[in-house]
Design brief:
With 332 residues, the protein is an alpha+beta fold. It is built from 14 helices and four strands. It has a four-stranded antiparallel sheet. The protein is globular.
Amino acid sequence: MKTVLSDSSNVYVVVACLAAGLNWKLDHIPSFGHSTWLGSCITAIKYTTNATQIIQDGYRKYKSTPFKVATLNRWVVILGRPHLDDIKKSPEDELSLSEANNDFAKIDYLIGKQIIDNPYHVTVVRTHLARNVAIYYPDVRDEIEAAFNEILDLNGNEWKSIPAAATMREVVCRASNRVLVGLPLCRDPDWIYLSSQFAVDVMTDAFMLNMFPKFLVPLMANFIKNTARGIERAMRHLGPIIEQRQKCISDYGNEWTDKPNDMLQWLMDEKQEFKTKELTSRLLTMNFAAIHSTSNTFTQALYNLVANPQYIQPLREEVDAVIAEYGWTKRE
């Protein structure tokens, strides 16, 4: 049985999704909305456009008691806070985050089964990036500063209206890709767009695939192409770069003195994937994980500051004091 875990910050619940074929195992759990076959279809249609409200209403009714809601291809079981400890203690073979992500986002069908079967990029991040993050501070800071200057394009102390979420997404995209692919690609407008759009394409395609029974998903994935088109578009950027780097590796080997120091090169050095499509899919997956969560958090922080302007000056003074003492460096 595959179980999907998610967190809803609005009602503080954990969501577990079970395949429709296992509905009989959920008969003892009360349903919010309709529980009959026809009635559950009506609830499922409402859920596609108003899921947040349905879950909140169900939570208000049942509080800490588990309840279930029908979606187009499964039941969603909502668990309250009293069950969080049980979930935390559950072993990986009972509740798996990676299986949950794959089941929800259909990664094996949309991006590639190798992402799930061999997630070696996680080890690469821990080895090369997490342990040496201070080394990349100057590059990341340079990219953030350049991005803000170019996007805002302010003259003096003028005020300008900007779309907060889109602006933060581009800044985070550029900063992330400064480490992932380096200059000059991280500043290419088309690369920025497709890197940011990739997560949207995957979730759009996954949403459509999740409307179908599981046995139809492999077939329907051949006709839902947003993700595939994004990968092909990205390959046109990365293909020549990968080819040139492979040539340098072949020509110079360990004597390659000006070898790039970015995620793409680290992945190539692992020698687990060699084809352009494989490496492109891997990098786009990392963009998927890096861009939207960070930019959404940053955007929400800006909104909170606007709503509570009394904290702006004290925070600015604290930041200025820390930078004056330590500079733009990492301190344990």
